[in-house]
Specification:
about 180 residues; Rossmann fold; Arc Repressor Mutant, subunit A; 2 domains
Length: about 180
């Protein structure tokens, strides 16, 4: 059986770029979360679903995993089960029976470059945020306060408990207790 795996990093991104134009794909597994984590429901379902003789088709290396170690482990786990892995963009194919040293070298090199690119991007993002915090500290003060502390204290003075206050205001009890604590100081 031929199955496909598609992934985007966030729910507001679109999976359409990873359309796999192969009519023999029988099942598609998808994730809409970061590839930096191995805890992905679609990936886990795909790994459990695949059996010996199956083929997993993936648009590109970075869709299966961003961390080189994780990507190599996923390919190896699938190959150990007798499952072939195909990467469409890179035109690479890996199976238990066909151990092409050049293809393995390409897998390692491309995965290393993908991880390096991700690390550079994260560093640049952190540097940009740090600069923006210095240049415009008002913008980076965190989330605006959305809980009315005065109303919480008024309800407390009226004899309501933390659970009742939290329920009435639609917030967590921990938030109510935090307001109690800060107001008593």
């Amino acid at each position: 059986m031929r199955v496909a795996y598609r992934r985007v990093s966030t729910t507001d991104q679109n999976l359409d770029r990873q359309l796999i134009d192969q009519p023999d794909i029988e099942k598609v597994f998808e994730d809409m979360l970061t590839g930096a984590s191995r805890a992905r429901p679609g990936l886990n379902d795909m790994m459990a679903f695949c059996r010996e003789g199956d083929c997993v088709v993936v648009h590109s290396l970075d869709r299966l995993g961003r961390d080189i170690r994780d990507l190599l482990n996923i390919v190896e786990e699938l190959n150990d089960k007798g499952v072939t892995v195909e990467f469409v963009s890179e035109r690479l194919r890996f199976s238990k029976d066909d151990d092409d040293p050049l293809a393995r070298l390409q897998l390692h090199m491309l995965a290393a470059f993908a991880q390096w690119e991700r690390n550079i991007s994260k560093r640049r993002q952190a540097e940009g945020i740090a600069r923006a915090k210095v240049n415009n500290p008002e913008k980076y003060r965190g989330r605006p306060v959305s809980i009315d502390a005065e109303k919480i204290m008024t309800l407390k003075e009226q004899g309501m408990g933390a659970t009742a206050i939290a329920k009435q205001m639609g917030i967590g009890r921990a938030s109510v207790y935090r307001i109690f604590k800060t107001s008593s100081q």
